[in-house]
């Protein structure tokens, strides 16, 4: 009897060994190790996987050897020794499903993947949406925006969907800012995928950070969505080193889209740096987007309340939020239009929340006020819905890289310029799709050619501007920083200067004006400190066109003084082409310098 | 660009928010249900295990049970989780007379007529939000009572 059982076990293992052998042979015949899908499953764009966590690989050299990882995977899946959550197939459902489809399920054991099945039941995945959370005013870290995917269920409400996010496992509040930036740039943090209810992401981006949210529904069918889900499960708890410029949040979503639909090549749109909005453009170009939606941020809502409220309403809303006015007084004020009272109380509740988020009020006092305001608001019954102006969709904005060619006169002499800027947007570029008043530039390079030959006109390393107009409810700083070579110094060549300055701005639908004080350092043979005082104004002139003027008076430490001024008009010819006409005036040691130029700009 | 605050923090906040609101003495037994289901609040499916709950785990509360009056609503863990995490947003929308969160709650409670539901919640604001520090379980209980 025992002998029979032992014979049976040996036979079973021989059969199993044969099953594995057959699968391995078949995979070798089909050259599966070289197939695109296998490389997608391994996040392997070339010969090395971008996943850094050894736990993602079954073969010791799996990270750099797709064939040996495939053999290890086949051996494990076709020769499973455990059949529950601990099975390799439960850990790697995407690999298993793909192999089953390509090699056949002969010999592939049945599994009970309880944890995975529970997740799928709970998520109930039906469709996928790419979500772009736009720039957060005044925060350079967010100025490129952020993207993540949302897995939609059969629920009508999208709030019940789940967000698939990729983020570095670091807390910027606990790290030194410089260390944080350096580690972020060069892969010092592990990045993880995570899954959260969408309403949590909305609270984070739309409410706390006050960023407008744009949703792009993807045209993926249920099978494609399920392929993505299986792969997301495989990435559970697995880390990749996070790289700010390329292997970042947005980039890591692209693998998931290609896993869902392998014949799209969204990653192929990128060479060296990935800007979140660019992944939206790439996704649209691959034909994946079929519907778009907008969710205004808390800030956008409050600005909309400012537009419908009169001065008294604004004052009362602030007093209510600060606990200086009893909501009953507003409720019982018979002299007021009921709709104005509704808006006042609604704005007050939003403001009260805003104050709480800013830490300006403690939770207990807030709860009391918030409750009283809402109780009064409820008593006024249903009113009109707040009209919120929807900004132009970011996907209508210009692309990230800019090339330009210019011709003009400088002090009566003709000259030409060419330039390139890999990223991203400046105040003179059309604001269609961008938040007005924000500028973020990396490596803006321009060369000039005139009768004296070629020279560097400008070489910006980094330049960030945040012109944030003051309003009834908001009183932000405006600020600007820059480091690089340009023509603003007293001499007639490009000089390196760096500055961080701040001031205030005011604005409306017409545009905005600003005043800034900017301490500067110029690096010359002597070294120069200076203080620049600047006043600027920018008018939106319709159709994405704008007229910008800025004047400055600079006090140098050695007593020199300098006027600068410029006027620039930008016409938006199309989404990715623009024409800029400009006049610039700069005092130089040897007299004033005047330039006129016409610049053709192309974005791609 | 990247949001570096780890999602774990959000999850911790979410779960604590849910549990902070738990009161096992609530009339319809919702609180007890949530305590029993110890994973429902922790939705970080990729970093936490997901045992203990399933999507179709709903609790029908019919007439006369657990001290509730006739109750046409179907209470479930998903609704509790949602309310716990969106207390202020829901309060705002109830006061205004509707919105996406109120619609979501209506869907979770299998309410057909969302407009009537929103209007009724608005009319009964003071019975649902009885004080500034009302808890999630109370809000749901009160909604159940008001709609009952």
Notes on the protein architecture:
The complex is a heterodimer of chains A (604) and B (148). With 604 residues, chain A is of the alpha+beta class. Chain A has 16 helices and 20 strands. Helices cover 31% and strands 32% of the residues of chain A. In chain A, strand 8 (402-410) and strand 9 form a beta hairpin. In chain A, helix 1 packs antiparallel against helix 3 (66-78), helix 9 (222-234) packs across helix 10 (251-260) and helix 15 packs antiparallel against helix 16 (363-379). The longest helix of chain A is centred in the first third of the chain and has 28 residues, at 2-29. Chain B is mainly alpha-helical and 148 residues long. Chain B is 51% helix and 4% strand. Chain B has eight helices and two strands, in the order H-H-E-E-H-H-H-H-H-H. Chain B has a two-stranded antiparallel ribbon. In chain B, helix 1 packs across helix 3 (77-85), helix 4 (87-96) crosses helix 6 (114-123) and helix 5 (100-108) packs across helix 6 (114-123). The longest helix of chain B is centred in the first third of the chain and has 14 residues, at 7-20. The radius of gyration of chain B is 15 Å and the shape is globular. Mean pLDDT of chain B is 60; it is low at 1-72. The interface between A and B is large, with 75 and 54 residues.
Which runs of chain B of at least 5 residues are low in confidence (pLDDT < 50)? 1-72
Radius of gyration of chain A using CA atoms only: 30 Å
Strands of the largest sheet of chain A, in order across it? 8-9-11-12-13-14-15-16-17-18-19-20
User: What proportion of the residues of chain A is helical, as a percent range?
Assistant: 25-40%
Strand order of the largest sheet of chain B: 1-2
The proportion of residues in beta strands of chain A is 25-35%
- Round the mean pLDDT of chain A to the nearest integer and report it: 91
Largest sheet of chain B: 2 strands, antiparallel
Structural class of chain A: alpha+beta
What best-fitting shape of chain B do the alpha-carbon axes yield?
A: globular
Structural class assignment of chain B: mainly alpha
Largest sheet of chain A: 12 strands, antiparallel, barrel
Taking all residues together, what is the mean pLDDT of chain B?
60
Query: Which pair has the most extensive contact?
Result: A-B, 75 and 54 residues
Number of β-strand runs of chain B: 2
Name the helix and strand elements of chain B from N-terminus to C-terminus, one letter apiece: HHEEHHHHHH
Quote the distance from N terminus to C terminus of chain A.
76 Å
């Amino acid at each position: 009897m025992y002998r029979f059982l032992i014979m049976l076990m040996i036979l079973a293992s021989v059969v199993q060994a044969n099953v594995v052998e057959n699968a391995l042979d078949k995979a070798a015949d089909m050259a599966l190790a070289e197939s695109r899908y296998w490389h997608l499953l391994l996040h392997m764009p070339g010969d090395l996987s971008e996943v850094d966590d050894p736990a993602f690989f079954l073969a010791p050299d799996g990270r750099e050897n797709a064939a040996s990882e495939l053999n290890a995977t086949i051996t494990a899946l076709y020769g499973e020794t455990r059949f529950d959550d601990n099975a390799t197939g439960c850990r790697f459902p995407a690999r298993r499903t793909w192999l089953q489809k390509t090699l056949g399920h002969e010999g592939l054991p049945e599994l009970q993947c309880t944890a995975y099945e529970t997740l799928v039941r709970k998520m109930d995945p039906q469709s996928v949406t790419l979500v772009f959370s736009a720039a957060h005013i005044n925060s350079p870290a967010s100025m490129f925006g952020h993207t993540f995917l949302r897995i939609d269920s059969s629920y009508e409400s999208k709030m019940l969907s789940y967000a698939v996010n990729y983020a570095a496992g670091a807390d910027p509040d606990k790290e030194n800012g410089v260390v944080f930036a350096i580690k972020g740039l060069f892969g010092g943090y592990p990045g993880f995928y995570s899954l959260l209810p969408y309403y949590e992401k909305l609270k984070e981006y739309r409410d706390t950070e006050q960023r407008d949210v744009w949703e792009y529904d993807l045209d993926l069918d249920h099978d494609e969505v399920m392929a993505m889900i299986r792969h997301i499960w495989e990435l559970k708890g697995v880390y990749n080193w996070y790289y700010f410029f390329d292997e970042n949040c947005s980039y890591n979503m692209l693998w998931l889209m290609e896993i869902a639909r392998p014949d799209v090549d969204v990653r192929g749109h990128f060479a060296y740096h990935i800007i979140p909005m660019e992944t939206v453009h790439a996704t649209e170009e691959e034909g994946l987007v079929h519907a778009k939606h907008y969710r205004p941020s808390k800030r956008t809502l409050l600005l909309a309340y400012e537009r419908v409220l009169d001065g008294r309403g604004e004052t009362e809303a602030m007093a209510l939020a600060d606990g200086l006015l009893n909501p009953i007084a507003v409720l019982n004020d018979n002299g007021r239009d009921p709709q104005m009272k509704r808006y006042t109380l609604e704005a007050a509740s939003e403001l009260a929340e805003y104050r709480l988020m800013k830490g300006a009020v403690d939770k207990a006092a807030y709860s009391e006020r918030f409750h009283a305001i809402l109780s009064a608001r409820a008593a006024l019954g249903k009113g009109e819905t707040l009209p919120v102006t929807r900004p132009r969709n970011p996907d209508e904005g210009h692309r990230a890289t800019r090339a330009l060619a210019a011709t003009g006169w400088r002090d009566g002499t003709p000259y030409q310029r060419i330039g390139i800027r890999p990223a991203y947007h400046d105040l003179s570029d059309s604001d269609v799709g961008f938040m007005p008043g924000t500028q973020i530039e990396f490596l803006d390079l321009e060369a000039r050619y005139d009768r004296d030959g070629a020279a560097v006109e400008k070489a910006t390393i980094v330049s960030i501007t945040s012109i944030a107009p003051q309003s009834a409810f908001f009183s932000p700083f405006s600020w600007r920083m820059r480091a690089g070579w340009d023509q603003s110094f007293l001499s007639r060549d490009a000089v390196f200067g760096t500055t961080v300055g701040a001031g205030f701005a005011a604005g409306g639908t017409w545009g905005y004006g600003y005043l800034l004080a900017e301490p500067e350092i110029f690096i010359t043979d002597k070294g120069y400190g200076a203080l620049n005082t600047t006043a600027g104004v920018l008018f939106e002139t319709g159709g994405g066109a704008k007229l910008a003027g800025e004047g400055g008076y600079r006090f140098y430490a050695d007593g020199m003084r300098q006027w600068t001024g410029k006027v620039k008009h930008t016409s938006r010819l199309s989404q990715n082409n623009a024409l800029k006409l400009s006049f610039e005036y700069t005092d130089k040691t040897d007299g004033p310098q005047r330039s006129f130029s016409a610049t053709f700009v192309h974005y791609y | 660009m990247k949001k570096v605050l780890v999602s774990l923090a959000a999850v911790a906040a979410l779960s604590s928010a849910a549990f902070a609101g738990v009161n096992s003495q609530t009339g319809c037994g919702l609180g007890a249900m949530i305590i029993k289901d110890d994973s429902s609040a922790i939705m970080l499916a990729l970093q936490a295990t997901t045992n203990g709950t399933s999507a179709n785990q709903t609790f029908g509360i019919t007439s006369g049970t657990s001290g509730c009056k006739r109750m046409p609503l179907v209470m479930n863990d998903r609704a509790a989780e949602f309310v716990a995490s969106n207390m202020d947003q829901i309060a705002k929308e109830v006061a205004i007379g509707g919105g996406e969160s109120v619609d979501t709650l209506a869907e979770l409670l299998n309410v057909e007529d969302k407009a009537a539901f929103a209007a009724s919640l608005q009319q009964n604001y003071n019975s649902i939000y009885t004080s500034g520090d009302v808890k999630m379980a109370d809000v749901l209980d009160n909604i159940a009572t008001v709609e009952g």
